[in-house]
Amino acid sequence: MKRAEAREQMHAQILSAARQEIAVHGGGALSMRAIAREVGLVSSAIYRYFPTREALLTAMITESYGNLAEALASSGADRKRNLARRWETLGRAFRVWSMSNPHEFQLIYGTPIPGYVAPAETIPAAEAVAVHFLATGAQGPVGAFNSTALSRQVGPIAGALDLNPSGTAAVIAEIAALVGMLTAEIAGHFVGTADPADHLFEAFLRRQTTTLGLS
Amino acid sequence: MKRAEAREQMHAQILSAARQEIAVHGGGALSMRAIAREVGLVSSAIYRYFPTREALLTAMITESYGNLAEALASSGADRKRNLARRWETLGRAFRVWSMSNPHEFQLIYGTPIPGYVAPAETIPAAEAVAVHFLATGAQGPVGAFNSTALSRQVGPIAGALDLNPSGTAAVIAEIAALVGMLTAEIAGHFVGTADPADHLFEAFLRRQTTTLGLS
DNA sequence: CGGATTGAGAGAGCACTGCTCTCTCAATCG
DNA sequence: CGATTGAGAGAGCAGTGCTCTCTCAATCCG
């Protein structure tokens, strides 16, 4: 029993050290050896806990999705009656989290690390994030996304969550758009045009609620 | 004279080899030594042409922006009278280019390579891409983006290109949204919901032309 | 209680990386 | 024709992910 506890503690300690590393140097630069040094282990010992760098990254991605989902859950959005306000609250919470944890954001939504392919086990974690937006924005139909082919594709999840198909497709696109906005801001692509991007982001949220028919 | 020619040829040869490397392994995995091997040089000789890996990446980014801008220019969009059709043509050309050159796309719009910061010299190259969308979509006002603070920020470029300020801000956001859509598709984030994403993308373009008041 | 088993950690080593340094030698310039 | 330049070679440094073998303490079981 004790053995298992110690193991779990070491596991957590490594993840924590990795998180610290990533916050400074970014995900692509994550070094197994540096983590080992930080937790006071020799490099090879790390591999007792994570068989490969990729495994460590996957664990971190899952964790980051969880952190983000939690930030959305505790934004107070779900206590709001007005759907437009609710969507805006979610959007702002997303942005605040992303700006506070840019490297975690990039870990999830950025270019995969060289050769890295997100494994299936990260999908439920990603869904935990999407669900907040779907529940808020996909209740009604959205004209531009009203196509039979598209509805058939998103049918399963729309059905499972009791949502409107065209609304569901629209929200999926709007999540991607939101991520695009934040990626651009973090990468500094707005410098010279709309940086700081606060006003642009607020206008963007207004546009989204209009598109989704929430206002 | 001959000397300078040979140097320029070697320069181009290295870039070409790097491009080939990137197409296979992605930007983060770009190896100076592998490039050297491919062009038949010893590793240290590469540094006669690019003082650092970062310099090589910058050169590649600029080149990629150029390729993308050229793909947009030769899409035939600017021959179209109908602005909505024109925007859709640009969007589709962007998507085709991105799907054909995913690693180049990620080089430009993805997570910066560990420790890499896009230097100022890539900005004009990025503008060459944006200009196509601005010229097409930013002629009229867009309600959600009509704020004085925002208009003041984008004022300079809107003025320089003789565009509507709120329309300009809207197009900037829509470019980011478009990039977000393509990033998600390339990263496989639509798998399980809307993959293949053709229909979602077409609906997305419809939504954009509506938002921008082009239809 | 005592021997067998397990597994965490150590350490050496392999093949790779970006980059620096010094050396050679052929092409160019004056 | 001699001096200068600069491309390329080669060795080397500090770092990487990962593998292998070894040790030794903690646990398990008869």
Computed over alpha carbons, the radius of gyration of chain A is: 20 Å
Mean of residue pLDDT values of chain A: 94
> What oligomerization state is this entry in?
homodimer
Q: Please tell me what the overall shape of chain A is.
A: globular
Q: How many E strands of chain A?
A: 0
Strand content of chain A: under 5%
Ranges of chain A with pLDDT <50 over ≥5 residues?
Answer: none
Could you estimate the helical fraction of the residues of chain A in percent?
55-70%
List keywords for this structure.
homodimer, 215 residues, mainly alpha, 9 helices
Question: Concise description?
Answer:
Chain A is mostly helical.
Question: Helix and strand layout, with pairings?
Answer:
2 copies of one chain form a homodimer.
Chain A: H1 2-25, H2 32-39, H3 53-73, H4 83-100, H5 102-109, H6 123-137, H7 148-161, H8 165-187, H9 198-211
Chain B binds a DNA duplex (30 and 30 nucleotides) through helix 1 and helix 2.
